[in-house]
Amino acid sequence: MYINQISVFVENKPGNLANFTNFLADNNIDIRAFEIADSSDYGIIRIIVDKPFDTVTLLKDNDWICNLTQVIGIRIADKPGEMAAVLNVLADAKVSIDYAYTFVTRNTDDALMIFRVQENEKVSSLLSSKGFKLVAQEDLAKL
């Protein structure tokens, strides 16, 4: 039970971020989550979209450098301390988190927390056993 995240490598220069988001808009791709990490020369845009496989194909066909990664998504209450509770479980289990980000969902009072870890199965089982609700790609349309 995972979410498909797309990572896109973009040169860090004026207008590239606008070009990227315009490209997605022109192709009717709904961005559900957006995160960017940058350096002086390039950025890595991480997005969760409504049609990940179609989007990756479209991006590659138009010379965007990108890849698809399965990440873990869990629903958490949108209130103070909820993120800390999840991170404490992972810290206690000595789980190394490559990166994480959150976003508020549309139709609930929840937030969605995304994790990139090395052992998806192990971490998914751990979080599920602690009562956290995992979110799959197909669940995103309802959130």
UniProtKB/TrEMBL annotation:
Cross-referenced CDD domains:
ACT_Bt0572_2
Pfam families tied to this protein:
ACT_8 (PF19571)
Domain named ACT: residues: 71-143
Identify the Gene3D superfamilies for this entry.
VC0802-like
What InterPro entries has UniProt attached to this entry?
ACT-like_dom_sf, ACT_dom, ACT_dom_pair
What domain of life is recorded for the organism? Bacteria
This chain's protein is named ACT domain-containing protein
Source species: Eubacterium segne
